[in-house]
Amino acid sequence: MTKILICDDEKEIVDALEIYFMNEGFQVVKAYDGEQAVEAVKKEEVQLAILDIMMPKLDGIRAAMKIREFSTVPIIFLSAKSQDADKILGLNIGADDYITKPFNPLEVVARVKSNIRRYTKLGALKEETESIYQAGGLVLNDETKEVTVDGEGVKLTPIEYNILLLLVKNQGRVFSIQQIYESIWEEEAIGADNTVAVHIRHIREKIEINPKEPKYLKVVWGVGYKIEKQ
Amino acid sequence: MERKEKQMSKGKREILLFLERILAIGMVVIVAFVFANSFLSVSTNYKTTYHYVISPLDKEASFENRKVFRDLLKGNTEKLIELSVLRSQMESNGVYNPKKEVDVTEWLRSLGEEGGEQKVSATYYLEDLIKWGNYGFEYQTKTGTWQELNAMLRGNDGISTEKVDKLQGTGTKYAMELLVNRYRTVDGKELNQCVSTVEDYEALKANVETLATILFENYSKYMELLKLYGTGQTNLYYCVLLEQDGKPVYLTNTNFSFQGMNGDDIGEQMQTLGERNLVFDPSKMQMNTNTGITASEMRAIVKKYNNTFGDNSKLWITVDTKYPAKDDLYYAKERIDKFMPYYWQTLATAVGAFLIWLLLIVYLCKQEGKVLTPEGEVQYTIKKFDHFFFEIWFILIVALEIFCVMVALQLVIGFVNGTVRYPWLPAIFGVLALMANEGFLSILFTSLRRIKAKKLWKTTFVYHIIDVLQKMAKDTYDNGSVASRTWIPYLIFLMGNLILVLLGVGGILGAFLLDLLVGAYLYRENKARKEIVAGIETIKNGEVNYQVDTKHLHGDNLILALSVNTIGASIRNAVETSMKDERMKADLITNVSHDIKTPLTSIITYVDLLKRENIQDEKIASYIAVLDTKSQRLKQLTDDLVEASKISSGNVSIQLMPLDFSEMIRQSLGEFYEKFEEKGLQVLSKLPEEPAMIEADPRHLFRVMENLFTNVYKYGLDATRVYVELEKVEKAEKSFLQLSIKNISQNPLDRTPEELLERFMRGDDSRKTEGSGLGLSIAKNLVESQYGQFHLEIDGDLFKAYVSFPEWKEEA
């Protein structure tokens, strides 16, 4: 059974999250300040830690830094601070994800799962053949036309698959709507309008935990789309 | 080492000034002293004074080679010749002969006097004539008939009547002035007995009177000169050969007897008496001397006495250069020998004093007016006394200096003429030096203080006059009524032109110049006004930091410019204050929203948990649905609030980069595809095929698009068309890419676009829907912070939003 740590000075939030995670079959260790969190990581064999940032005694940032001194366990921040600067700071000191309050509980669960999968299966999937394309946790098997995100299968339409394949094959490169249209439909993009954009959105909704903050399929506004090189 | 400025103490300054005065006076006194001593006045035996300037450069020259020696010798020679002439008159065989018989008329003739041509004469003893001349002549009036008068004269043989007329008288009685016979002739006769006619008596009487007078004078002179050039009285020895009564006579003051000697022997004899000799022979026009006197000079002297000193005369003079006698030569030599033994040293002292004086003056000048503030900074101040008008002071001092120089000149002239005694010269010069120096110091120091304190110009009389005039003009200009300000200068200008033109060609040129100047002035004023107007425009256009340059402005323009600057500054202050307020507000909102978010998280989470419970009661389920919606709305509201406050306070970082606006629109439309479909909104887009490049921050621009499309989604009437167009427009000569979004509102729009853009301001009915009402406001602020333009239009139920950005070109 997977054991995770949830730390927040609001007891109700911890309790609520515990309910969600219990339902998903997790074992939850609870903590209400930074010091307790560090202790818990030390003593309990947790596989992931969810930390609030604004906490008494030891704030989330400091607690995460202390934890990083002895552990590589995935850390997800849970904070009311929604500024870009706060997120960048959190991720820079070694956190693996950053979720702003108020959050969608199901998204928290999805992200925790995703992070644990990546953490535990890190380096497991190395058999990259000619027909398998990978970008982080996103894997495309061109032979079976199967797509998995962090090991979970995703169902895509053929056009969506082709678009995703084009982008994964050319990781890091930005494709404009016109380029995507011309290479997928193999005809000139006259009045392509928002067909490609709509498809892209559908793909994002299928492979991303939060389509508004995509991890794989990024929108480069005013230029096009790309798969971030992992 | 830092060199510290020091302020001279008052005591030190007084001491230095005292020293300066001493030096100035000393210097002048020394120079006067040197001058007085270099100036040699020699009084001669014969009451003439010679002036010489002795230079130390010719100090080595012996006295006998000097001009003073020659001049003295020349003068003495002349006197000696005079003496010899007198001696020939008064003496016989080299001795004074009072019993010398003098034929009156003949003597007069030989002297070249008037009366010598008369036929009648009488012979008196020399002594008697001299005495007669000394005592004077007495007369007695004899009256009588013609016969009676005639009888007095020797051998009367009748006189013509015409000659009688010369006598004074009337009728038969005549009066005649008879000379009282103080002395008788050699043969014992009275004067009247020597003539036979009245006419002859008158002539002889005149001759006797003339000669007696002359002889008395000559006798005095003779005695004087004889004494002057007597043995032991003079350092000159002379020997004069004169012809008297046809035989040679030697006149000399030596003990030698030259009678019968020839000329060369006499010369040799004379040379034994002294080193400097002179021999002159008028007949041969020959001169032989080692005294430096030239033959022509000698001839000029002798010429005056050529009656006596004729061709057969000869002159020997010898100077005893041991100068045993205390005569004029002796005194002159003494003066020269004693001349200024320390001449150069004295002059060097004067030069030294001058140099020290100069140094003192320079030092004092440097220190003058300098004052140290308590902080140690150097300041230059002027004294109360320095406020006195500079020119007047200057003129007074110049007058004083001129006075001193004039007095000095008078002194020098007086000294040369001998009216000023020697010791007075340096003394009075010293006093003058003190006066002149005081004047010099006062004008020097006051000028320096004024210059250093930069007040020289301001303490002049001219400045005060100009200042008063300027103030009057400025007063008229600044405070006068518009009418006086306009008309007075204009009338002056017209009058000036008129007067100048009446003056002729030059005046017309002057008038032309005046007009040019006035034109230039008007141009300058207008230019200044234009600058101010430009400044106002700039401030109006939002550049509140702009300041009009007031350096060259005057009068109304200056007031105007200062006011504009003040207004600009006020606006800037207001803007800054409001920005600060906004930022504080934003911080407040951010902090408050953090505190709201934590409980909100719990609410949302527990509402979600409630939803998961299998609740059969529909009433409860509907309550939970309300909770769910409202908590979600609260979340949205909080986020929007933070964002709006951040953007409007300028607290958001913008990173501009080139991007394709139409691609952006396509991508955004893709994001909203399902939402629009859900409400049956049909998007009709008209986007250019070629890239529409603009410069913007992609994330912020997407936020704008998101807000605009969200707005369409929320407030658009179901199943209507939405027009999305991107086109190129020209605004203010610049190319813009303009996005327009048009849709039909589901509720009547009874608000103006401005009201829509105000926070929390929305159409009344829309309050019931979700959303914070901040979307449009955020969009507008974001567009403007990316240098784009945003505006809304409402036409009935048609809602139009326009977003435009300047077209971006690669080379720009």
Can you walk me through this structure?
The complex is a heterodimer of chains A (230) and B (812). By secondary structure, chain A is of the alpha/beta class. Chain A has two domains: 3-120, Rossmann fold, CATH 3.40.50; 132-227, Arc Repressor Mutant, subunit A. Helices cover 40% and strands 20% of the residues of chain A. Chain A has eight helices and eleven strands. In chain A, strands 2-1-3-4-5 form a five-stranded parallel β-sheet, with helices on both faces. Chain A has a four-stranded antiparallel β-sheet with strand order 6-7-8-9, covered by helices on one side. The radius of gyration of chain A is 20 Å and the shape is elongated. The mean pLDDT of chain A is 85. Chain B is an alpha+beta fold and 812 residues long. Chain B folds into four domains: 10-38 and 341-461, no CATH class; 60-138 and 180-338, no CATH class; 480-540; 653-806, Heat Shock Protein 90 (2-Layer Sandwich), CATH 3.30.565.10. Helices cover 54% and strands 15% of the residues of chain B. Chain B has 22 helices and 23 strands. Chain B has a five-stranded antiparallel β-sheet with strand order 11-10-14-12-13, sandwiched between helices. In chain B, strands 18-20-21-23-22 form a five-stranded mixed β-sheet. Chain B has a three-stranded antiparallel β-sheet with strand order 7-9-8. In chain B, strand 22 (789-795) and strand 23 (798-806) form a beta hairpin. In chain B, helix 15 packs antiparallel against helix 16 (505-540). Chain B is rod-shaped and about 205 Å long. Mean pLDDT of chain B is 83; it is low at 155-162 and 761-768. Classes of the chains: A alpha/beta (230), B alpha+beta (812).
